[in-house]
Amino acid sequence: MRNFFWIFSFSIFVFYPFQTPSFAAERAVSSISFQERAGYGFLIPDLDGSYLVAVVNSNGIDEGIPATGRARPLSLCQKDSYEQAEDEEDFDDIPMGEMEGDFIRDPFESINRVFFYFNDKLYFWILKPVATGYKKVTPDQFRVCVRNFFSNLTMPIRAVNCLLQGKFVGVGSELLRFLVNSTAGMLGLMDPAQTALKLEKQDEDFGQTLGVYGLGPGFFINWPFLGPSSVRGTAGLVGDMFVDPKGWIRLDSGEWIIINGFERVNTTSLSIGEYEALKKAALDPYVAIRDAYYQYRQNRIKN
Amino acid sequence: MNKLYLWVGVFFFTCVVCIPIPAMAGEPTEMIRKATDRIIAILTDPSLEGPEKAAERKRLVREAVSDQFNRREMARRTLARHWQKRTEEERKEFIDLYGKLLEQTYLDRVEGYSGEKVFYEGAEVDGKYAVVKAKILTAQATEIAVEYRLKKTSDDWLVYDVSIEGVSLVNNYRNQFNSIIVRSSYKDFIKKLKAKVEKQ
Do A95 and B81 touch (CB under 8 A)? Predict the structure, then answer.
């Protein structure tokens, strides 16, 4: 009996995240409901002041797909589209879920924006000048080799996460890549596994594994130095530290900073101009990066 | 028994051979391929090289690009729920400003062209919507996945969204614009957009 109790409570803990819609429907009784053009829905207040939105489209009932999502309170309470239903340019022809926002919650926006400013200055004042100088004194090919070397080292992260996601072909591919690139590829400086054998690198990490298991991103966190992340992404980074070979060697903090700093400068030297372009194209660079991070990660989890 | 294997084999073989052909040679893919080839030809044209020809080059690229996009559709999807509250003049103004912003962004990026190769991986067509998938291979051997989203209007397939490594341009701008509009007002947002477009 006691065992049963433990299994029961454990399964609630595990499955709760998957069941938000049905829980939401229960809570909806005591919350705001609204009527839309061809359907109805509920707004369920959530802990952080945002609202969980459940919309049931009466046309959609036969397909049986209620739409759920999150929105800030304003976005739906203010809807006055009811009167404008005759608008010739209705959104009816647009596939469901494509229009109404898919975005990451950001309850700590003000702190995140401070760190965004900090990282921005870090890039323009330190990282970019150093990387530009480094780029001037080293050939492109050398920097690609350095990138390959570091990337080859982190094979265990990718292989373990392929395994955790049940991508067994990926595990084999990663192990084979490591074998080939560490030998024929001269300690991973070259990537003959990709160029000659067409073995693609499997970009999997623990954050994606958690996503595949059904964990949501939580909320947005913009770390100083590390940049955009989420609760899930941060948990992933911590998880990956255990299988990162760089963590297996005992390093004092000076050595750690030098190695990681060098890797960062090398990576930056290969992508100078990308951050600038993104910033230039954006009306609000912070929101642009937050959204790009979220969309990029969601896409990685799907693949 | 052996014969059965043979037939199964033949069946799968024909499936593999036949299915990709209509998908690959689809109209939307051809449209994207043609436009991309035309732009690359302009960018690699030796008679258009050098900074003194930059204006001419930009003009030609702008011409080649602007026919391929459905600006109104892009604008509508970007403003999303704010679109319906706008008057026709406001919509026209927004389409114009947003088009300019996108144009600048695109022209800036394209100016940095350095021999990237484009591979087409086929298209998915669903009624009047289509997605064309492509891969860009950079000089540093990095692969970038690009998706063009198209909609058929009258007889043409026109692009209404581009997504790079899963990051959709329209979604990204929608979230930026929405956050500004919700926080202040549409008027304020247009002021900001105008300043941004005029600054460049």
Answer: no
Q: Which domain holds residue B125?
A: 2-199
The pTM of the whole model exceeds 0.90: no
| Per-domain residue ranges of chain A | 17-102, 109-302
Per CB distance under 8 Å, which residues of B are interface residues toward A?
A: 76-77, 80-81, 83-85, 101, 104-105, 108-109, 112, 128-129, 139-141, 163, 165-168, 171-180, 182, 192-193, 196, 200
A and B: number of Cβ contacts within 8 A: 89
B155: domain CATH number?
3.10.450.710
Per-residue pLDDT of chain B (200 residues; tens, 9 = 90+): 556 566 666 555 555 544 444 444 458 898 899 888 988 888 888 888 777 888 888 888 888 888 888 999 999 999 988 998 899 999 999 999 999 999 888 888 887 788 888 999 989 998 889 999 999 998 877 889 999 999 988 778 999 999 999 999 999 999 999 999 999 999 999 999 999 998 86
Q: Which long-range contacts (CB under 8 A, 24 or more apart) does B146-153 make?
A: B148/B28, B148/B32, B150/B28, B150/B31, B150/B32, B151/B70, B151/B73, B152/B128, B153/B70, B153/B73, B153/B128
Token digits of residue B72? 């109104």
